[in-house]
Amino acid sequence: MKVITVEDLSFRYRRAVNYSLRDVSFEVKKGELLGILGPSGSGKSTLCLTFNGIIPHSIKGDFSGDVIVRDPKTGEEYNTKETPVAKLSTIVGLVLQNPESQLFNMTVEDEIAFGLENLGLDRNEIMRRIMWALEVSGLEGLEKEFPPNLSGGQKQRLAIAAILAMKPEVLVLDEPTSQLDPVGREEVLGLISLLRKEHGITVILVEHHTGYILRFADRVIVMDGGRIILEGKPGEIVEEVEVLRRLGVKLPPSLEISHELKRRGLIKRLAFTEEDLLSEIKSL
Ligand SMILES: Nc1ncnc2c1ncn2[C@@H]1O[C@H](COP(=O)(O)OP(=O)(O)OP(=O)(O)O)[C@@H](O)[C@H]1O
Ligand SMILES: [Mg+2]
């Protein structure tokens, strides 16, 4: 079942000379993890802003084509052009590239409660959802903490928790680990894996750590200059190594090495991880 359908989408920011999205078409299926790769300025964040209607409602410009969001619970379809952001946000939760820009309350708890209060939920339901969001994001015990005092990983998990509490069907994460050290990154990526496994949530993930996308995504789109230039399963995308290199999309070392070995006919399969690479080499 499709949850998002993007059809011939083009967008140019007001006063910008060039289009930031050009004839973009693709679908997102319920329950999948769609990875988005592409160099800086290729349009990844702009695309994310179209899923919950921030573009074209709050950020205006020349917009053509359609983004259709389908609520899997009711089967109803919403064209983002004709649907307010407040409605779309109950289906599509967007965590922005810079989590700090999304945190402005005095405590962790208030931060999570904020969006819920705007949904008009009763007090008990709000409390239940706060507890749940704190638990899944591993922030229990930090309820009264002042968000700016949290670590980078905790801030990013809080930004995700605040969106999750709204129980969106689709979670859109724009570089959720960009400002994190490897420990913080593992925390956030671990949370995303858990949400998919235990809650069947659909995830759209922009992430410049290509290795993670290639290991965990069901499908990947690669953008360049506002267009989709590759789309496929991770195994198909990594075959296009020349395209990725040209774009400056950095492959993990295990893939770079295994490409070289495969090119020389020494191994048959590309290795996504160091463990895979080691077992390929051992079987030589
Ligand atoms: N508010 C804006 N006004 C005008 N142009 C913008 C605006 N935001 C982004 N752009 C332009 O749109 C294009 C796509 O930008 P976008 O931020 O979507 O890229 P990105 O792929 O997310 O890059 P990054 O990897 O650096 O986050 C760029 O050329 C950028 O300069
Ligand atoms: Mg971006």
TrEMBL record:
<protein>
    <submittedName>
        <fullName>Energy-coupling factor ABC transporter ATP-binding protein</fullName>
    </submittedName>
</protein>
<keyword id="KW-0813">Transport</keyword>
<dbReference type="Pfam" id="PF00005">
    <property type="entry name" value="ABC_tran"/>
</dbReference>
<keyword id="KW-0547">Nucleotide-binding</keyword>
<dbReference type="InterPro" id="IPR027417">
    <property type="entry name" value="P-loop_NTPase"/>
</dbReference>
<keyword id="KW-0067">ATP-binding</keyword>
<dbReference type="GO" id="GO:0005524">
    <property type="term" value="F:ATP binding"/>
</dbReference>
<comment type="function">
    <text>Probably part of an ABC transporter complex. Responsible for energy coupling to the transport system.</text>
</comment>
<dbReference type="GO" id="GO:0042626">
    <property type="term" value="F:ATPase-coupled transmembrane transporter activity"/>
</dbReference>
<keyword id="KW-1278">Translocase</keyword>
<dbReference type="InterPro" id="IPR003439">
    <property type="entry name" value="ABC_transporter-like_ATP-bd"/>
</dbReference>
<keyword id="KW-1003">Cell membrane</keyword>
<dbReference type="InterPro" id="IPR050095">
    <property type="entry name" value="ECF_ABC_transporter_ATP-bd"/>
</dbReference>
<dbReference type="GO" id="GO:0016887">
    <property type="term" value="F:ATP hydrolysis activity"/>
</dbReference>
<feature type="domain" description="ABC transporter">
    <location>
        <begin position="4"/>
        <end position="250"/>
    </location>
</feature>
<dbReference type="GO" id="GO:0043190">
    <property type="term" value="C:ATP-binding cassette (ABC) transporter complex"/>
</dbReference>
<dbReference type="InterPro" id="IPR015856">
    <property type="entry name" value="ABC_transpr_CbiO/EcfA_su"/>
</dbReference>
<comment type="similarity">
    <text>Belongs to the ABC transporter superfamily.</text>
</comment>
<keyword id="KW-0472">Membrane</keyword>
<dbReference type="InterPro" id="IPR017871">
    <property type="entry name" value="ABC_transporter-like_CS"/>
</dbReference>
<dbReference type="InterPro" id="IPR003593">
    <property type="entry name" value="AAA+_ATPase"/>
</dbReference>
